[in-house]
Write a structure and sequence with these properties.
249 residues, alpha/beta, Rossmann fold, OB fold (Dihydrolipoamide Acetyltransferase, E2P), 2 domains, 5-stranded antiparallel β-sheet, 7 helices, 32% strand
Length: 249
Amino acid sequence: MRNEILKTNPEKMKCVIIDDEPLAVELLEDFVKKVDTLELISTFNNAIDAVSFINQNNVDLIFLDIQMPHFSGIDFLNTIEKKPLVIFTTAYSDYAVEGFNLGAVDYLVKPIPFHRFLKAVVRAQQVLQPVATPALTESTNTPEIEQDFMFVRAEYENVKLNFADILFIEGLKDYVKIYTTDNKFTLTLISLIKLENLLSSKGFARIHRSYIINIKHVKSIQKNKVLISDKRIPISESYKNTFFEKINL
């Protein structure tokens, strides 16, 4: 059985709730209503009914319970043809590893607090709208212009950061801090690997599992540290040779 609430708003993430517990569905519905970037288009109290709907409609995100009678959330994921983003919602933590191996964006253990729900949604938004530079229109008459900035998602807005203004980037558990020349930092949800791939050709270097630096702002280099602004940043052995080769040291 499903409760269909189809709407159309291209600016929002279209989401579906699949859970056999009515109270759990009700709670998630309430949470979704509080988040402006989400749009609930249907709810289901069993995964079997949801299969054809997911395969026939554009869905960005599923809030999916794992333990349901007859047909589990994992069975469901292995059945559907289309693969939207998935946030697991369950009363059991035992399936966390399997959930992430299936590509889940996040894994929420019931009872779910709103702040944890919101964090999972932000993570899903980052997957759908990763760090990007503005797209260029291909033209045989127009030469390609190299972009010198990027946009990152912070709070509820996209923040423009000029590459030249970035001092260094520090990786945290789920987020990164991007420090800039105005003595401020921007906190955003993205991996250092993605930033490394984007910035490696822009004068940046990964020098530690937790740090990417803008070589332009390096004041001095010691054996195992670089000085940027007033911050001494460690150079790990695993990145040291690549970094020194890059700066011809």
